[in-house]
Write the structure tokens for this entry.
Amino acid sequence: MNRRALAYVLGFYYPKGEVVLRSFRFTPYLSFIGFGLVVLTLSVNVSFKLGIEKGLDEGALMLLSVANAVLLVYPLAWGVFGVIEMVLLWKEKQRMKSKLERGKMNKEDFLDQIKKVKTSLRINISYIVILLFQLGYVIINWDEVDV
């Protein structure tokens, strides 16, 4: 079995030999990981607030405080990957538009693939907006983060 036949079986080539943009190329994995970090941050923050309200012992509150402070800052650092991912998706969108204009891509493939890229961009931009809200929360409540 030659390379082209193997690539066709794996889904990397159409029968015509054109390269297929696989779906993982458009999936914003870093944004999904970032959403998970934001949810984890919210759960630890709520646990910390409830722990203060319920009067947990000092050791548990200290651990929750450190976890809360770390998780309030770490997803903001992860946001750098979200911005890089957005730039890569934007460049891919521009690259596809230029291929369409030069005639290297037909209209059907372009419409199918641009829809995937736009969906990924929407997911990524919504993650960045959530990070901006989190950054505002961290700035307003800096005494909570300052361990």
